[in-house]
Amino acid sequence: MISPCIPIEKHPLSPFLPDNAKILMLGSFPPKQDRWSMNFFYPNFQNDMWRIMGLVFYDNKHHFELNGEKRFDQAKIEQFCRVKGIALYDAACEVQRLQDNASDKFLQVVKVTDVESLLDKLPQCRAIVTTGQKATDVLVAQYGCPEPKVCEAVKITIAGREIEFWRMPSSSRAYPLKLERKADAYRVMFESLFSI
Predict the structure, then answer these.
(1) Are strands 92-97 and 9-10 parallel, antiparallel or unpaired?
(2) Residue 24: which H helix or E strand, with range?
(3) What is the spatial distance between Cα 179 and Cα 82, in angstroms, rounded to a whole number?
(4) What is the Cα gyration radius of the chain?
């Protein structure tokens, strides 16, 4: 339920939609901007998404970090996503924070993302990957589809298009799984979709 006393936050980033994208990764919503280390998705230096990608594709969790700085290399990440065909956005485009933190459990979704309009711009996309429970819950509610088990996929139909819907572990450090185990899970998904 929307609270009249809490401000509504609109998504601060535009969807990242490379023409060649084969997958669309959906998180929940970015943290507050004072926690950002770059102006891109998964910007919090404490979030492990780009370390997971570094391990999966380069066997190096520091691959996307700027040497000696507590920041990610945004240009390197964007180039990587363009080359690999990875589109990025979030399942919610407007939220309220019920507590002053980045935890998904305190996010009240005000407006869900129009996933169909994103897919319209991604003709080669064949999979949607949710990167946490909140994003998964939003997609399941939006399309009335079954919820995949963590690290597994189900086939769903969106606007007449068959899509693989993968549910992956959260890259947040609050999710109780070692970084290497998360990377192993993402590697299985990428091997299935990309044959890496």
Answers:
(1) antiparallel
(2) strand 23-27
(3) 24
(4) 16
State the Cα–Cα distance between residues 100 and 34, nearest whole angstrom. 12
Q: Residue 72 and residue 124: Cα distance in Å, rounded?
A: 28
Quote the CA–CA distance of 147 and 32 in Å, as a whole number: 28
Question: Which pTM was predicted?
Answer: 0.93
Tell me the two tokens of residue 119: 């897919």
**Do 107 and 5 form a contact (C-beta atoms < 8 A)?**
no
* Residues forming a β-bridge with 94: 10, 111
Write out the two tokens for 39: 């102006």
Neighbouring residues of 25: CB distance < 8 A, sequence distance ≥ 6: 41, 86, 87, 88, 89, 128, 129, 130, 131
Tokens 């964007």 sit on residue: 78
pLDDT in tens, 130-179: 999 999 999 999 999 999 999 999 999 998 999 999 999 999 988 889 99
**pLDDT digits over 21-61, tens only?**
999 999 999 988 888 999 999 999 999 999 999 999 999 99
Helices (DSSP H) in the chain: which residue ranges? Answer: 49-58, 74-84, 115-120, 133-143, 179-194
Structure-block tokens of residue 57: 């594709």
Q: Tell me how far apart the alpha carbons of residues 112 and 122 are, in angstroms, rounded to a whole number.
A: 19
Q: Which two tokens stand for residue 170?
A: 């959260």
What is d(CA 47, CA 3) in angstroms, rounded to the nearest whole number?
A: 28
Structure tokens at 188: 């299985």
